[in-house]
Design goal:
Distance between the termini: 43 Å
Radius of gyration: 17 Å
CATH superfamily: Cysteine proteinases
Structural class: alpha+beta
Helix content: 10-25%
CATH architecture: Alpha-Beta Complex
Number of helices: 5
Order of helices and strands: EEEHHEHEHEEEEHE
Oligomer: single chain
């Protein structure tokens, strides 16, 4: 018998070693929902500037939750001037996150994957963030994206690996390859004036020669509805030393 306060945890068997997001939802996260936007103004085009964490395209560890924390931490409005979190920081976040999740094993030595929730907790414990907040539902996410880069955990489909510089648009088709945590940094409202569902959001991965991709809002909403989650970690106010943590 489960109770409303029980964790919802699903361990995903990743079909590709670059993937690593696990599903862990804590009902208590509802208490830490981001405050709704007070403006009634229409959403505008947004593309948040990000200082690159310089990922290694040949790395195959499933530390995507740590990378998403670093990308979010390197985003304009959340970044410490002169400090760029990098892949060593991402691995450190990931390693701690694997010990915080309710699954057996931890990295190192096991590349277990981790959840967005555990990565947010790890970022706070490591002094990268003061706190984190959650966005529930597509409207809350799109409103939050107006002001911030966000960390998103979703299923990842085989056809979503195929973004190129000529065609960033991908679709959740071809079957599930596993779970992935990625950074949501862009909303293009001008793509379709007829339907919000045809507008596009933009994300960043950390593998391959081209790491940027786009989804229609309809496809993004479908991914969110299937055990997806979105959070924002707010960087700590205490100064960080330039370089690694």
């Amino acid at each position: 018998m489960t109770s409303p306060d029980d964790l919802y945890a699903v361990r995903i068997n990743q079909a590709d070693p670059r993937l690593g997001r696990q599903i862990v939802h804590d009902p208590r996260s509802r208490r830490f929902a981001a405050a709704p936007r007070t403006t009634t103004a229409k959403r505008q085009n947004r593309s948040h500037r990000i200082w690159d964490p310089h990922p290694n395209p040949n790395q195959v560890i499933g530390n995507c939750t740590g990378v998403a924390e670093c990308v979010m931490g390197n985003s304009a409005g959340n970044r410490h001037k002169g400090v760029t979190l990098d892949m060593q920081d991402a691995v450190r976040i990931y390693s701690l996150a694997t010990s915080l999740d309710p699954f057996d094993g931890a990295y190192p030595p096991e590349d277990t994957g981790s959840s967005g929730l555990a990565a947010a907790k790890a970022a706070v414990q490591l002094g990268i963030g003061d706190r984190y907040e959650w966005y529930f539902g597509i409207d809350a996410v799109l409103d939050g994206l107006q002001d911030h880069t966000l960390s998103v955990g979703t299923w990842w489909y085989w056809d979503m690996f195929n973004a190129t510089s000529q065609n960033r648009l991908v679709r959740p088709t071809g079957g599930k390859a596993g779970g992935h945590q990625w950074a949501l940094y862009k909303h293009d409202v001008s793509v379709s004036k007829l339907s919000i569902g045809k507008q596009r959001v933009g994300g960043i991965c950390w593998w391959g020669s081209y790491r940027y991709f786009e989804l229609t809002v309809d496809d993004f909403a479908e991914l969110l509805a299937d055990d997806g989650d979105v959070h924002r970690t707010i960087r700590a106010n205490t100064p960080l030393t330039k370089g690694h943590l």
